[in-house]
Amino acid sequence: MAPHSNTQSSSEQSLETLQDIKRMMERSSRFISLSGLSGVSAGVCALIGAWFAQGFIHTYVETESAEGFYAEARDGFELQMFGLAIAVLVAALLTSTWFTWRKARKSQLPIWSHASKKLATNMAIPLAAGGFFALGLLQHGGWNFIAPACLVFYGLALVNASKYTLTDIRYLGFLEIALGCINMYFPHEGLYFWTTGFGLLHIIYGLIMWWKYERS
Length: 216
Description:
The protein contains seven helices and no strands. It is mainly alpha-helical. 29% of the residues are buried.
């Protein structure tokens, strides 16, 4: 029985060694410190922003119907919406970064590594293109198509970056792209699609990722 036990022990050690090598390779090539709570926090920020945006829109519509259309009122409304979008983006980035940093510290992994640089670069390219595209729509009066453009380009960014982090993020990207494409056919409902894509989907995705990778 001794030779068999030694062979089994050797096999288990070899399997454990292979698993360790796999984990090391994954850590070096993928940014695995992305926290599910980051998605939840980004989604909550988006929902709060959508609530404020709904109030801005309601006030603007009431003002327009009561006083008629004035360029000053429209400029003020656009400035409010732009400022709100920047505030939501900053809040989402700060909270997401904090949760990711906390997970990386707990896992004793660097938050700024070769993999995270690759992740940031591959996300930044579609996001930058989408930002310029949205600004072009804004300049030419295409307000109704900014929400679907943001959803589509953000989804492309997630799919593009998924090979450098948890692959599950790819499915969130596919959903964002699909939602943006559908929104193109319902342009006046952009706020609801935007809220669903950046709010609800982020929260659902974040909870799934937390349950799958961080619950233990």
